[in-house]
Amino acid sequence: MTDLVIHNARVMTCDPSRSGLGIVDRGAIAIDAGVVSWVGPNDQRPHADREIDARGRLVTPGLVDCHTHAIFAGDRANEFGMRAEGRTYLEIAKAGGGINATLGPTRAASDDELIALMNARLDLALAGGTTTIEIKSGYDLTVDGELRLLRCIQRASAMRNQRLVPTLLAHLIPPERRDSRDAFVAEIHEQLIPKVAAERLATSVDVYCDEGAFTLAETTAILRAAKAAGLAVRGHVGQFKDLGAAPLLAELGALSADHVEQIDDAGIAHLAKAGTVAVMLPGACVQLRLPVPPVGKLRAAGVPMAVASDMNPGSSNCETLGVQMWLATTHFAMTVEETWLGVTRHAARALGLSGVGTLVKGAPGDVVVWNCDEPAHVPYRYGTNLVGAVFIAGVEQSR
Ligand code: NIG
Ligand code: FE
C-alpha cells in the first residue's frame, strides 16, 4: 500500500523530459517511503493509506531557494531607511555599513542565538513553500568564525525537515584585514577550504567578486582551491561591476553565476557553454535600484535561469519566494514558466541536486499544494501567501 496519494490535482512535474512545466491535468501523485513513486492521470492512481483530494488545485514541487545568507545576527533597518532617502548601497558600505555592519552582531551571538534566528527565518521560508534552501556563511570572515557558522547550519539541518544546503562564502575582506589582504585570501584557500572539505561543512564555495569585494585574481585563487578540494564553485558576480569572472566560472564548471546585472555577451556565451545557471535575485536588484540583468540575452543563449531570495540583512530581507517570483515576472520580464523552473528544477541544478525541484518517479516527495489552480496565480497575486499545504519527504509540515 502506498503511503500518500494527492489526487484531483493539476500536477506541475517540472519533468526535464517534457516541455515547459510538464503539467498533468486531472492528475495525481503517489509518495512512498518519502519518494515520488508514481505520477499520472487521476483515474489510474494507486490506493494509499492517506488520500488527499486537492479539489483541482495546483500541486508543485517544493520550492528551492538556491541563494540565501540566512545565518546572521542583528539587522540593518537603518540602512534601509538611508537608501530610501537616496543613499546608495556602495556609499553606505564605504562609510562602514553594509556587510561589515553585520560582522559585529554575528560574531557576538552565541551558536544557540544564531541557530534560533536562522530557524525563525527558515520557518518563514517554509510557510512560503520553500522545502530546500541554500545558506551561505560569510558574516564572520575569520577562519574559525566561518567554520562556526557552517557548523551552526549543520546543527540546524539536523533539527529540521527542510533540506539545508550549506555554502562557504568568501564575502569580503574584513576591515581588520585590509592591510593584510593577501594573507587573508591565502588563509581562505590554504586553511579554511581544506577544513570545510575535510569536515564536509559545505558542498560549494562562493566568492563575492565585485567592486569593493574580492578581485578576479583573488576569486581565481579561492575557487581553484575549492575545485581542487572537491567542492563545487559558485560566484556572486556583476552585481555592481563585471570584473570578468564568467570565463573562470565556466572553466571550473561552476554551478551558478549569481546576480549578473552586469555581464557582457562573451560572458553569457561562457555560461551557456558550461551549463552554468544564472541566478536572478530580483529583490536585491530592485531594492538597490540596479539595472535589470540581460534576461533576454541569457534566454537567447540558452542559459538556465534560477530565481532566489538572496535573503540577507542588507539588500534583501525577504524569505518568501512568491514575492521574488512576482518581481521576476514583472520587473525582470521572465515568463511564468521560466520563473517556476527558476524556483524548482533550475534552482536545484544551481545547488548540484538532481531530482529535487521535480515531481517525477524517484524524486523526493517534497510537494506544495497551492490555493489556486493556475501557475501564474502565485506571482500574479503577490503578497498573498497561496500555500495550502507543504509536504517534505511525504510528510505534511505544520507551518
Ligand atoms: O547578495 N552582494 C553581496 N552580498 C549580499 C548582500 C549582503 C549584505 O548586504 O549583507 C547580496 O546582495
Ligand atoms: Fe547574495
Write the layout of secondary structure elements.
Elements: E1 2-12, E2 23-32, E3 35-41, E4 48-53, E5 58-61, E6 63-65, H1 77-84, H2 89-94, H3 99-108, H4 111-127, E7 130-136, H5 143-159, E8 163-170, H6 181-198, E9 204-209, H7 216-228, E10 232-237, H8 246-251, E11 256-259, H9 265-274, E12 277-280, H10 282-287, H11 295-301, E13 305-307, H12 321-330, H13 336-342, H14 345-350, E14 367-370, H15 377-380, E15 387-392, E16 395-396
Parallel strand pairs: 1-4, 1-5, 6-7, 7-8, 8-9, 9-10, 10-11, 11-12, 12-13
Antiparallel strand pairs: 1-2, 2-3, 5-14, 14-15, 15-16
Helix pairs in contact: 4-5, 5-6, 6-7
N-(iminomethyl)-L-glutamic acid binds at residues 69, 98-99, 102, 208, 236, 239, 284, 310, 312-315.
The major beta sheet can be summarized as:
8 strands, mixed
Helix run count: 15
Structurally, the number of domains stands at 2
Q: Which structural class is indicated by helix and strand composition?
A: alpha/beta
Q: What would you call the shape?
A: globular
Strand content: 15-25%
Residue windows where pLDDT falls under 50 for at least 5 positions: none
CATH topology of the largest domain, by name, is: TIM Barrel
By CATH, the superfamily of the largest domain comes out as Metal-dependent hydrolases
Give the terminus-to-terminus CA distance. 28 Å
Number of strands: 16
Helix content: 25-40%
In short:
The chain has helices at residues 77-84, 89-94, 99-108, 111-127, 143-159, 181-198, 216-228, 246-251, 265-274, 282-287, 295-301, 321-330, 336-342, 345-350, 377-380, and strands at residues 2-12, 23-32, 35-41, 48-53, 58-61, 63-65, 130-136, 163-170, 204-209, 232-237, 256-259, 277-280, 305-307, 367-370, 387-392, 395-396.
